[in-house]
Amino acid sequence: MDRTQKGVVVEELKGVFAENQVVVFAHYAGLTVAELTDLRIEAAKAGASVKVVKNRLAKLALENHDAKDAGAYLTGPTAIAYSVDPTVAPKVFADFAKKNDKLVLTGGFMGATVLNADGVKALATLPSLDELRGKIVGLLQAPASKLASITQAPAAQLARVFNAYATKDAA
Questions:
Q1: CA dist., res. 13 & res. 19, Å (int)
Q2: How many domains does the chain have?
Q3: What confidence tens digit (pLDDT) does each residue in 161-171 have?
Q4: What is the pTM of this model?
Q5: Same domain for 71 and 149?
Q6: Same domain for 63 and 103?
Q7: How many angstroms separate the CA atoms of 15 and 75, rounded?
Q8: What is the CATH number of the domain that holds 56?
Q9: Same domain, 117 and 157
Q10: Domain co-membership, 110 together with 150
Q11: How far apart are CA 158 and CA 153, in angstroms?
Q12: SS3 readout for the chain
């Protein structure tokens, strides 16, 4: 790889680091090409991307980033996963690491916050943004449905009373 190609890669990584909410680093030593392809497919289905990076180029891309201290986790054969949703990339790597011992989480960053391996695993256990939005909508709808049932209840009770008087007179 010549100097201009390296410059292109560094600029591409700067864009990846700037555009995504979370970036996770992992060692992938010992993974076969098929296993790495499976990881990429799982990530794409979930809405994340996986890329194998050269550590020196990734460190250069991190130099002016708020999370430049995350470069300490760029050692050995490194793969990165990144996504706009802050829980997707950590979940993909954590789930794959549970199934395959050869993928080892090392760290990453979310915005300006540098995460160690335990921080990435903790982030992986959180619900996704879509799940949280669904819970909020459910919480907002619950009082409205209760209010509707409360306002309809007196009318229904009144109708039953009138029906009871009507059937009493008929009997």
A1: 10
A2: 2
A3: 777 777 876 65
A4: 0.72
A5: no
A6: yes
A7: 21
A8: 3.30.70.1730
A9: no
A10: no
A11: 9
A12: CCHHHHHHHHHHHHHHHHHCCEEEEEECCCCCHHHHHHHHHHHHHHCCEEEEECHHHHHHHHCCCCCHHHHHHCCCCEEEEEECCCCHHHHHHHHHHHHCCCCEEEEEEECCEEEEHHHHHHHHCCCCHHHHHHHHHHHHHHHHHHHHHHHHHHHHHHHHHHHHHHHHHHC
- Of 14, 24, 150, which Cα lies nearest the Cα of 94? 24
Same structural domain, 116 and 141: no
Residues in the chain, total: 171
- Identify whether the C-beta of residue 93 lies closer than 8 Å to the C-beta of residue 103: yes
| 70 and 150 share one domain | no
Same domain, 44 and 116: yes
Q: What pLDDT digit, counting tens, does each position of 51-91 carry? A: 999 999 999 998 888 888 888 888 889 999 998 888 888 99
DSSP β-bridge partners for residue 25: 80, 107
Task: Please give the residue range of the domain that contains residue 83.
Answer: 3-126
